[in-house]
Design a protein that fits this description.
The protein is built from 18 helices and eight strands. The protein has 468 residues and is of the alpha/beta class. It has a domain of 210 residues: Rossmann fold.
Length: 468
Amino acid sequence: MYSEFFKLCGFEAEEVEKESPRIDKAFKIAGIGVKDVERAEERVKKYFDTELFGVRQALKIWLRRLIDLVLAREEGKKIIVYPSWPPEPRVVSMVAMASENVFCETPEIVMDIVMGQIFGKLNPILEAAEEHGLPPGLGMCALNQARVGGIAKGIVPVPDITITTSFLCDQTPKTDELLYELYGVHNIFLDNCMDAAWEEPMESSPRCVSYFAAEIRKVVEEFEEATGVKLSEEELRDARVAYAKPVYVYQEIMGLMKKADPQPISQVDLGLLYWLIQAPERRSLQEGLGMANTFLRETKTRVDAGYAAVEKGAPKIAWFCHHATDPTVMHMVEDLGLAIPVTAVLWTPPWQRVKSQFTTFAERIADQTVRGGINRSTMGAVRLFQECCKEFNVDGFVYLYFFSCRPICLTALMSKKGVEDELGIPVLALEGDVWDTRDYSTEALRTRVETFAEMLRAAKATKIGQIM
């Protein structure tokens, strides 16, 4: 029923045959039937450029992650750990690489990418969460709903431990408290200090680093105590390096995208790599670097060949964040003739590229995190977007903010004003959701983006005329 679909997604015929018992079992638990596979095959052909080997590799990893997740308990994993979104990915990498007996995964991202983007059947999972403590109409985050709904429907095994960042998002820790109340899950919380003064420099914050490093050490101690797995400083450094390598490759790809005209690859395809980096686990950490390098090589080849995923000379925009569930939105933007060389949230600003002066694992992670911008303060987010737009020399910025995400909504209009005032380029603050397709339509968004695109084209033509 699924051999052609899996081949489309990068599997060899012998791999499909070998894995078929696991696939059958996982698909039955996840409620994926013949019609679902047929729909998924159509969606992959329509939305992803499977001529790119990197895309096929990424799809393969995502499908394997779903199968690994669904079968984790059944296949005898002794300890199941779910880091909650948004995570501190270097800490997640540390846990993911800790032991073969520890299964570490971010289930909500797997639900969004695989059950959402690929199979197009995320909504029943969100509706299950709405019946189990996260009701509709109260601005509940659909990402948290994917987490709870996956467990409620029996697709996602009940974890032994959650590791929850409780500084950027206030809904996530409350969601994991709900998992404790419903299923007795052991919660480990990772806190941080986000009270930086408005004009405080981004380059260094010893106070924040000290606090956050202490929190990271506490998480390591609680994890070791709960699991009996000991983590040496060397193992922690190795995990950090394993995470950093594909991030560096992604930055190289963005460097190519910055210079390229025409845009050589759709951001929908790059989103598969983006989310693997944002939600690391053992398989992604082991296989992700090779896949990222494939993306890099293929992007270089397309740049050299002048391949156009978006027409040459198109206005360039910075985009806020890749859609996790809905590939139609970013395709719509590119189809309207806007090039997207960068998504801002995984771009590394200049002040974060400086080598950390700290020496311990915890301090280095803390330093990198608090210098990132969004995890520092509202002004940190504004500065991140200003510098990103400046470095990529874009003609505009689209900040698509999520209806039910308070930290993202908080910075939207301030970021719009900050970028427009500082750089003199227009910013479109667009209401939508990267986790839930039920609260907006791509066609409704198209109306506003189309007007924005026409404005950018007119401004670009005027600028070129003045230069000539």
